[in-house]
Design brief:
Length: 220
């Protein structure tokens, strides 16, 4: 089917409405339906357990990585590069070289049968520095928000064997971060804390709690 593009001025619909029904008539307000940024930020939690029945595709990883063509980059260097890993031999290699749940070592996360199977490995063409680290944060957060918008979940992984990952996946650049992507199967809840309270996440009655310092205490 041929795609037809229609260019309209900002006030086209309003003017067209006036032509059809007369100016001054009560207009129907059409609202865009979608998730707000606040909603996406709240849903974007770090999942350490995933539903194995939901297989993430290469096409979905491409959509997630695609946000990097729109986001800011320090000095506009755009030196981050991305390796996609989906379910298969390479996903096992990644899994064997990462650590999850560092604050809960007694749980040995992820639980058997809930391991992530899709990953985005973020590399840099140049040596890591302050600007690259800023780009890295922007990129990782943006990709996870996109995944959340798509009904998926993920986690940023900094605890991994860089040397093994680079060698076993034959990466041309230094890996800086790994982002696991999948459909989370955990219950995660934010909980407000005072700035002097313990910041570590914890689990209670099957729920993973993530402490967040209250707004009035992060404003100086």
């Amino acid at each position: 089917m041929q795609e037809i593009s229609i260019l309209m001025a900002d006030n086209y619909l309003e003017n067209r409405y006036d032509e059809l029904f007369g100016s001054g008539k009560k207009k129907v307000v059409v609202k865009h339906v979608g998730q707000s940024l606040d909603s996406l930020l709240t849903k974007n939690r770090s999942y350490r357990g995933y539903d194995k029945n939901r297989v993430v595709t290469t096409e979905e990883l491409q959509k997630i990585i695609g946000v990097n063509t729109k986001i800011p980059s320090g000095r506009n260097q755009q030196v981050l590069r991305f390796k996609m890993v989906t379910k298969g031999e390479n996903s096992e290699k990644v899994l064997n070289n990462i650590k999850l749940g560092g604050a809960l070592p007694e749980l040995h996360l992820p639980f058997a049968g809930s391991e992530p199977e899709a990953y985005i490995i973020v590399c840099s063409q140049v040596n890591e520095n302050k600007i690259i680290d800023i780009d890295l944060g922007i990129s990782a957060q943006s990709m996870l928000l996109k995944a959340t918008e798509m009904g998926l979940n993920g986690i940023i992984i900094a605890a991994f064997n860089k040397e093994n990952i680079k060698k076993e996946l034959d990466l041309p650049y230094e890996p800086l971060l790994i982002i696991a992507i999948g459909k989370g199967n955990e219950k995660i809840q934010l909980t407000a804390i005072d700035e002097k309270d313990n910041h570590n996440y914890y689990r209670q009655d099957g729920t993973h709690f993530v402490p967040k310092v209250k707004l009035e205490q992060i404003i100086i």
